[in-house]
UniProtKB/TrEMBL annotation:
Residues 1-24 form the signal peptide. InterPro entries: CAP_dom (IPR014044), CAP_sf (IPR035940), CRISP-related (IPR001283). This is SCP domain-containing protein. Residues 31-175 form the SCP domain. CDD domains: CAP_euk (cd05380). The keyword Nucleus does not apply. The keyword Signal applies.
Length: 227
C-alpha cells in the first residue's frame, strides 16, 4: 500500500544520503499535523486546568523547527521559543516518521510523574510542562533525517530521525506553575469560548496561525536511541 511504498522510498533515500555523505534531508510530516495538534490538546484537557488554551498548528513555527532540525545538532537554540527535541537512531532500518512522532510525544508526556506542582521549576519534566503550559497556544513541528546527528558535545548518532517542536508563547518560566487548577474554562481570557475538550479558544489562538515570526520560550531535552 501507499504507506509501505513511502517507507521503502525513505529507506532507499536514506541509503543514498549515507552513500553521498550528505548531512540532512527534509522529512515531510505534514500528514501528521492533525495528530500532533490533536494529541497535544487531548493531553492538555486531562490536566484539570481552569485556563488551558486550545493549541493550534503554526506554520511559521514549523519553518523555524525545520531549519533547526536541518542542522543535525541535538541542542537548543534558546532564542525565544519553547522547544521540545527528540531523536531515534537505529543500526537497522531507518525509523518510521510516524513512530518517531508518536514515541517522542509519549516520552515527553510520560515525564508527568516527575513534576511536582507548585515548586516553581519544571525540574526533570520540562518537556511535559511545555506541552501543557496553559498560555502556550501554538505549536509547529518538523523532522530531518540525519545520517550523522551530533549532540554538540562530541558524540555522534548514525541513521537518526530528528524531531523538533517549537512552541509559542513561552512556557517553563521559573517561579510559575503551568496552569491554574480549577473547573475547565472557568478562567479563560475575556472573549474566549470553551471547546468541547474544555479548552479556552479565542482570537489570540487562531489569529496568528500563519505568522512567520512569533515570540516565546525555554528549553527541554530528550534523547532516545535504539540498537
Amino acid at each position: 500500500d501507499l504507506d509501505k511504498m513511502n517507507s521503502s522510498l525513505l529507506v532507499l533515500l536514506c541509503a543514498l544520503i549515507q552513500f553521498l555523505g550528505l548531512d540532512a534531508v527534509y522529512v515531510n510530516i505534514q500528514r501528521y499535523r492533525g495528530y500532533i495538534q490533536r494529541t497535544h490538546n487531548n493531553l492538555r484537557a486531562l490536566e484539570g486546568a481552569a485556563d488551558m488554551k486550545y493549541m493550534t498548528t503554526d506554520y511559521g513555527l514549523e519553518n523555524l523547527s525545520q531549519r533547526w532540525a536541518d542542522r543535525c545538532v541535538f541542542e537548543h537554540q534558546m532564542r525565544g521559543y519553547g522547544e521540545n527535541l527528540a531523536f531515534i537512531s537505529s543500526t537497522g532500518p531507518t525509523p518510521d516518521p510516524g513512530y518517531v512522532i508518536r514515541e517522542s510525544i509519549r516520552q515527553w508526556y510520560n515525564e508527568r510523574p516527575l513534576y511536582r506542582f507548585g515548586t516553581g521549576s519544571c525540574g526533570a519534566a520540562c518537556h511535559y510542562t511545555q506541552m501543557i503550559w496553559a498560555r502556550t497556544s501554538r505549536v509547529g513541528c518538523a523532522m530531518s533525517y540525519c545520517a550523522a546527528l551530533s549532540d554538540g558535545r562530541g558524540r555522534v548518532y548514525r541513521n537518526a530521525q530528528y524531531f523538533v517542536c517549537f512552541y509559542s508563547p513561552q512556557g517553563n518560566f521559573i517561579g510559575q506553575t503551568p496552569y491554574t487548577p480549577g473547573p475547565a474554562c472557568s478562567r479563560c481570557p475575556m472573549g474566549n469560548t470553551c471547546t468541547r475538550e474544555g479548552l479556552c479558544f479565542g482570537p489570540d489562538v487562531m489569529g496568528r496561525r500563519r505568522r512567520r515570526s512569533v515570540a516565546a520560550t525555554y528549553k527541554s531535552t530528550m534523547t532516545k536511541s535504539e540498537a
